[in-house]
């Protein structure tokens, strides 16, 4: 059985802030794993790339979305601040609202899609 159609959204604010599915997923995984390294590794992302994305997310807004704890006897770690939890929640809510608003059109597209179609993997045209 195929997966249901989905939409993704990317928010582009006037100040240049860009928040999309990749950053939202990273926030979700940091909350789940309690570690930037583990969050990145779970999606095949290097620690450096995950750390840089997390740093960018923290600089995008007036408040940080991610907190870190330095290592020691109890070990280090990371998680979402209250603001980060709210940011992720609002992004997921906007994502759902857009999907719900487009449901009838997505269903129509799905019903008219050729089931024999195979992607070449070369097109990123959206």
TrEMBL record:
Gene3D superfamilies: Winged helix-like DNA-binding domain superfamily/Winged helix DNA-binding domain (1.10.10.10). This is Molybdenum-binding transcriptional repressor. It comes from Neorhizobium galegae bv. officinalis.
